[in-house]
Fold this protein.
Amino acid sequence: MHDVYVTGLSNVLHALPTKSRLIYVSSTSIYGFTNGELVDESSKCEPHDDSGRTILEAEQTLRQLRPDTIVLRFTGIYGPNRLLREKAIRAGEPLVGDAEKWLNLIHVEDGATAVDLASKVGTPGETYNVSDGHPVHRREFYTLLAELLQAPPATFVPHPPGTEIPSHDRGNRRIRNSKLCHDLGFVPKYSSFAEGLRAIVVPH
């Protein structure tokens, strides 16, 4: 991952025309908060796993070589053919993890809209969180997903005692998208996971 995200990125930046407009899609995983904190672009970046640290190093490489880059820190992307844990839900398998932790999401169409806005009106050198602005507890998300899929009700079990919690399951934060909305005029088509899921699973 480091070879691609950091070394590869550095190689690409050295090859790009210096006057080109550059937008980089990053991830909110670099924040690393675990207690449900509200997080915006001014929050500390203290990732708690190797993946997040690599993504942070990639951003730092960008700022060193191309400080004018617009960085978009995406939350979890969902959309057609990209539904979190869909197979497990359909099979009625229990989901391992804390059902009360927060999910931060962006529908793929709204993610594309954010990139388009950044390319047109984004301020060079700025960073924007890309989220629908409505964090949701995992229980609520997967309960609705199971209902829409007409699958067994979603159930949850804790991680087995003595096992290390996977890095992707440690995060627990609420991402704010106020800067994206205020500065770029972003208005999501799917203002929350409920509208987004219903459009995907029960298309009109």
Summary: Residues 2-201 form a domain with the Rossmann fold fold (CATH 3.40.50.720). The longest strand covers residues 23-27. The chain has a mean pLDDT of 94.
